[in-house]
Amino acid sequence: MGAGIATTLDSDWYVNPEIYAREMAAIFGREWLLVGHRHELAQPGAYVATELAGRRLFVLVGKDGALKAFHNVCRHRAAQLLPEGAGQCGVLRCPYHGWVYDHDGALKKRPNFDDRDDADLAELSLFPVRVEEWRGFVFVNLDPEAGNLVSGLGDMARATREVPLERYRFHKRRTYDLDFNWKTYTDNYLDAYHIPCLHPKLAADLDMASYRVVNGDRVSVHRASQRKMAPGEESGAYQGLFLWRWPNNSLGVYGGGFNICRILPQAVSRLRLIFDFYFDPEAGLSDAEKDRAAATTCQVVEEDFPICSQVQRNLEVGIYRSGPLNPRLETGVAYFHDLVRRAVGNRP
Fold this sequence. Notes:
Layout: H1 17-28, E1 33-37, E2 46-52, E3 55-61, E4 67-71, E5 85-88, E6 92-93, E7 100-101, E8 107-109, H2 118-122, E9 130-134, E10 137-141, H3 149-153, H4 156-159, E11 169-178, H5 182-190, H6 195-198, H7 200-205, E12 206-215, E13 219-226, E14 242-245, E15 249-254, E16 257-267, E17 270-279, H8 287-303, H9 305-317, H10 331-344
Antiparallel strand pairs: 1-10, 2-3, 2-5, 3-4, 6-7, 7-8, 9-10, 11-17, 12-13, 13-14, 14-15, 15-16, 16-17
Helix pairs in contact: 5-10
């Protein structure tokens, strides 16, 4: 490789189950992870249940309106308390044997047990998870010793301070289940080099010569000047902020709206992408216009899936080990790989 040219992670990082397990513990077990938005958690009893890094958990709005989070594990026989997804929970009752917990996670009742010993009940509260809110977005952290959410967001808070996120309203969600490693997708997302080859419509909207990638604290911001449009010509390109935030979020801001994505590892060669689309009521967009804007993003996203699958299969073969990164258009990939190495360790 040329002097000073960054290189990719070794292919083992994309196919080795032991490395994947270390990533789940060292990255997803210690960082602040997005689980939802207050629009899903507006009323007491509302909950969102999900799985992160192989651990099932839920966030619940308590009777006092505060957010609570717990591992989705009954203290009796490890049953799952709430089904995955969003819902409403009046009584937090285990479906297996009927144990009842309050919204603070304290065990209140266990049928056919002698519950005269309150100290015994106190020792069987649900396992808590840290939860914090930032501008309407709800994050959890599986590490009880982690710093606060704002510090965990790095430069994302600064990069979005001019975007009125609180004013936007949820429109729709799109979920994809895919057959490649979470880093294979993240590499592709952070790579501006492939845009002219795989995204011709997006490339036609952008002045690619002006494309720049600026890495900050756990953030990679991508910017390019928009090509001058002919009269009456519409652009589908991002017209504002386009960033990635460590370890597993992307944010795209465009005229009247934005999308935020969660990149959720499911196994070594499986991941789930969840795209949520929000729009500014003051922009005056119709539902049809919002749907078209969301469809434009989805089209660009889906154009990457075939190549990501091909890359994953080739990484699994073992012929390719590592390659050089473009010093201008793949600096986001290089930064991501540095963060992975720092979190997990350089040696597989």
